[in-house]
Please model this.
Amino acid sequence: MNLQQYRWFLVGIVVAAITGWIVFPAALYERIEQPLQFSHNVHIGESVGMSCTDCHQMNAGERGAAIPAVSKCAECHSEAIGTTEAELKLVEDYIKTEREIPWLVYSQQPQNVHFSHIAHTGRANIRCEECHGPHGESESLRPFERNRISGYSRDIWGSSITRVGNAPWEGKKMDDCADCHTKRGVVNSCLKCHQ
Amino acid sequence: MLACAVENNIPPAHAGTTDRTGLTWMRVHRIEQQGNDASTETVYLPLMCQQCDEHPPCESVCPQKAVEYDPETGIVAQIPVRCLGCRYCMTACPYHARYFNWWDPSWPAGMEKTLNPGVSTRMRGVVEKCNLCHGRLQEAREQAAASGTSVVAGETFVPACVEACPTRAIMIGDLADPGSEIARQIKTPGTFRLLEQLGTQPKVYYSSARQWVREQLQRTIASTRTEVVNG
Amino acid sequence: MNHRISRRDLLQFAGGSALGLLLSPLPWKLLDDSAIWTQNWPWNAEPLRGPVSNLLTTCSLCPSGCGLRFRCVSGNPISTHGIPEHPASHGTLCPAGLLAHHLRYHPQRIGRPVRLAAGAPFVEATPLTTEEAFNAIGERLRSSKSTVVLDARPDRAASEVLKQLARTLANATYVPEHTERDRTIRAMASAFDQQVEISFDLSSVRTILSVRAPLIDGWHSPDRAAAIFDRRAGTGSPLFIIHVDSTPSRTAEVADEWVKVHPGSEMVFVLGIIGALLDEGLTAPETRQRARDFAELRSALAPVSREWISAQCGMTTDKLHVIARRLATQGPSLALADGQPDPNGRSSALHAAVACLNLLTGSYRHRAPVRAHRGSNTEAAPSLDAITDGSVDVFLADESISGSTSTEHLLAQKGSRNCLLISLSPFVVPHAAFEQIVLPAPAFGEMLTDVPGVSDDGRETLSVTIPAFRSQEGTFNTVDLCAALLRAVAGTADASPSTEELIKDRIASVLKTGKGHVFKSSDRTIVPIGSLSSSEELWTELTAGGAWSGDQPTRKPTGSFRLMRIARPALELCEQERRDSRSRFTHDEQSAPPAPVRIVDPILQGTTVISPLISKLREESGLRPFHPEAFDQASSSPVSVKPSKA
Model:
């Protein structure tokens, strides 16, 4: 076997490997900044001392995301408290005009999924960090990495393209949910999660 | 019928829809008494997925496993995203309770803001059917979870058809609970199920005080077949 | 190295890439993502996401005033539900109410004024700017010799503003539209020598003679229809329904007896019953005393041959007598009629005949179903029937609450050749006979209005509809319209109170009477009005799905009445038909044109355009009307607006 003879074959493999392992994962996602910057850390920190559920209210009948409406922000920020650019933008562009902030939700699930926060935080007593990681202590909101083909966030698949080496809270595909259910002995039937 | 359509995001008709191509998860049929008496009676029969027990005919024929019988609730689940639209289940269903999306759902401008987020929307090419307002059951479960219990109180789960009927002709309940109102109701004389001889064990029971209604709805063609066999 | 790249090199490259790609995540991830992509076509609408909230209000699509709860996601109503234990509805909603949240987005909704040319219903609608519309309207109003201000939903607080408008404009009259239920009542009231107000009490009636009245499919809220249904099935006080109709409607199916008459002969049928009562001497003794012209009625009806009557109706004279006997002996009995639609203008004569029948069966006996009490209305507003044919130059129809009017054929009769119809409505509903200018009103869900009504046992009721949305720019409610019209005609307009102020005034006066009870939706209790301390409190309750109902009317002496006052039009029409030698019913029944069948579900008196979902479900199930060629407003959109509405 002469490597020279099959050099183009090897070139092909190398090119494909680079495309598949490096170019593709980078090109697959487009980074979109959140409409507004927000520091979780400041809000749970000593000076403010809020907890997750002060803003993220999980009520019966509401599917999935418990992202608060702008009226929640307005409870404290009807006038600017601090001096950051983000806060000024919040007050001027959203609170004063009564517009909802178009947040890009990292864990957004498709419409046919019924996810109930209460069943998980209430009955199963799962802490927020177990599924959402250190997000609640973040200084700023990372950009939303949108999968150009499916439209969902990179968080659903996980940051690793092979799903090897993902942090325990990463990955919100159906199999991830089903795995955890199986581990905890919860019966998996279709209608449990689908609607 | 309307309450079901509102709850389940049924779109207004595509032009050219007929009673065979439409989506009516709950369908009310008009049954007239056979006979030529001037005072024939009429009754109305609400027909939806009969939620067959254990081995529903539609489950075993699905190549995609888009239909699943849930032993916990007894509901036969139809997952539209898995369905590839072969319509084998429609053929298998003896009650004709399954409907096919011949077209993509289309709404007048703005009316899509009235869609119910608790029920998934379906695209063209998938089969759909009544799922006993499972979205409302999930909400009832959440309410129970919010108050710290895992038992769903009977009054919190009311399917759309039961809620809407002004004469309270439709009733929902837990068949497995022998002390429930519905368990008592199904034992009253005059209560029957449709096509019981097929062995589908449906969980929907019908009750009528009128003899002709019971006879007409439980007719079989067995007698005809015997006649043919006997020449 | 050879610089030329050969085919083999390319093939090698291709093979290498294929192997490399297969060993990379690319194809596998692409498969997964493409599958998801195929499930999310962008042209398929998705529901909104967001917090769920409830808004309690009252449905105003018909005068019944059922309690209504909007279930909202991010503030957008996605479904409607009843309010349990609400006195008007007990948690039920009719098909129009169930889809009330769709009306805002109905394809026939307009956002700016449009003009429709006169002629066939399939016309082009030309959009106008508000200025153009009001200029045109102002001109016509100034030159009009006879203007009729038609209130499709009278007795509202805002109706006062319409009355005021009619007083201010030159040559204008205020005319309230009445439901079919009201028309018979008003006919009866007009027979009395003094001003009376009459109410029906269905709960104490034992026999109902329903002449085409859709008792269980649209006459009332579904709750009351269900109550009738229940009584038929044996719960509650006994009830026997005789339903007179030429086609097997749903009420005919449920009725104890369906009397099939030739289409169009209903009025003659009622006269036949009256005749039978007179012949057998079964009229109430009280009536014979109180009616000042009883003998006159007898002699007016005597020459009308009973055989002719039964031939017109298509039944034997015996049958008429059997029914008459039942009404007289199995009382208390009540006759109800629905005259719509009646292209031959017999509807008011039918109501007159029915009113006369009710008076004759003697509904004044102690514990009678029809109670009369001294009225509080000092102005007796004219009815549309009383206006001279062909005399009206401009109709100004306030259809803002109901969406459309139920008196189309009457409008056609009363309008002059170049009549202009100005409709205030959220929808374009063409009235074929006239040139029309439609001014956009807020749709259901965007308007504030009060819902006055009368319950089954004669109590006055009041509730309030509050909006779930702000109304769109460029729409007019009743008060705005009157102000704008006065400006257009006279250049200026006095400031008039807003709708909210008018309703609050009305609520304050209700509180002052100290009568009646209030249903509170918060805890589903009914409390006497005295327990509410201020009109703000009453406003709070009524704007959150609550309802006020007054005391039961007390029976007061009514004095004498004249039967001929109301019977005359019916008798004249009957005489006309007799003289007309071309009998409509001698030929084969098959070739007689069927009476136009109304849409049976939902049919609420003079109600709005309905959601296209309702007509879709009707088409797809077996529950179609019996004559498919019946006019269907919602499933065919006869009007195209170009350019598309703003």
Remarks:
- Residues 2-169 of chain B form a domain with the Alpha-Beta Plaits fold (CATH 3.30.70.20).
- The first strand of chain B starts at residue 27 and ends at 32.
